[in-house]
Amino acid sequence: MPPKPLDKKFIPLALSKPPLSLYIHLPWCEVQCPYCDFSITTDPIEKNDLKLAQAIAQDLADSAAFIDGREFRSVYFGGGTPSLASAEAIGIILDAVQQYSIVKDAEITFEMNPRDVTAGKLTALSALGINRYSLGVQSYQDQELQALGRNHDKASGLQATKMLTGINSTIDLMYGTEHQTIVSFEETLEQFIASQVSHLSLYQLTIEPNTIFYKKELKLPNEDQIESMEHLAQQRLESAGYKQYEVSSWSKPGFESQHNLNYWQFGDFLGLGPGAHSKITLGSEITRFRKIKPLNGYISNQITTDHTIIRGEELDMDLAMNLLRVKNGVTHDQLGFELPKSFLAKYQLGIKEGLLCEGTIGATPKGYQYLNDTIKLFF
Ligand SMILES: C[S@@+](CC[C@H](N)C(=O)[O-])C[C@H]1O[C@@H](n2cnc3c(N)ncnc32)[C@H](O)[C@@H]1O
Ligand code: SF4
Prior knowledge:
By secondary structure, this protein is of the alpha/beta class. The chain contains 16 helices and 14 strands. The strands form 3 sheets. The protein has a 9-stranded mixed beta sheet with strand order 8-9-7-6-5-4-3-2-10, with helices on both faces. A 3-stranded antiparallel beta sheet has the order 11-12-13. A hairpin with a 2-residue loop joins strand 8 and strand 9. Helix 1 packs parallel to helix 3 (87-97) and helix 7 runs parallel beside helix 9. The two termini are 34 Å apart. The site of S-adenosylmethionine (SAM) has 15 residues, from strand 5 and strand 6.
């Protein structure tokens, strides 16, 4: 029997060329926050600001094979603290990006720390093409900010938030931190809601190995308090018109992060800058790799390291860890590729256990509540 012709809309994973997004990592930080395990440097920026931008531009020029003729679906400047870089440096990088194709009106996000938000900086960045800002507020409470070792206070957080009024932006908040109570968290949530910013990333503090917090005895809210905070966030954000569309992400309708959705819908991403991670689909395999972390090493040679190839049934876990994060699931149309048979077989077991939905690829409310266990079905 001849093989069944392919439905053009659904390309088997093995043959597909998924959409591609671009991540640019700028590692600058004024201080090392005691909970942070991102690839950062507190070295003075001036001497290396332009050198790093030129190295990233070179890295991008050398990445044509990974880009493989695709348009960038979104661009994201993350850190570290991109807002410490000069507008000249960002201009060098964006000029290099323009050498490739970008989807019309693509989301171009830029992370900022509150102390760097000035009208002049926003005007300069917007003139370069930045059209979305991500502000790392963490909390609108002085005591909590001090315990997090932040170099900003409540007043500068509020001032920076106000400057973003009417500009497409998102705010990062954290819960489960020292000195935080249900009442203080509620106040922070109310400040966020009052700001009318249309997107929120809400992260529970995680204690990462190799951080100062890992070695310290911390007085953190207990599990019941954490659950109450999550419940409160759900109630307050929903009644204020925000929808949770991913484990940590809330937005007003139409303001979901296109860049983050690309990760969770299993798109490819190219990461440039010290320590930046990439995921590229090559034939029937997925390759994950990262750039070297030391700043000076990256500036002199943008070497790629830690290559991992994921193929066959190993892909199931990778798919589950991304797709199932999306609340209410992903439709087959949104995916645009056929899921492997081994994934679908495990998925059927999840349906039987009431953890996974029929129709869309996603977790039921019960499966979403115990997401880590649900994902284990795909081991
Ligand atoms: C890589 S940081 C960069 C943003 C910016 N430099 C800042 O600190 O505001 C992105 C976000 O990740 C979150 N984050 C970083 N470390 C975390 C941790 N250990 N636990 C939970 N959230 C964390 C914070 O909300 C932070 O705003
Ligand atoms: S949390 Fe942000 S500011 Fe603090 S060290 Fe990490 S990247 Fe830098």
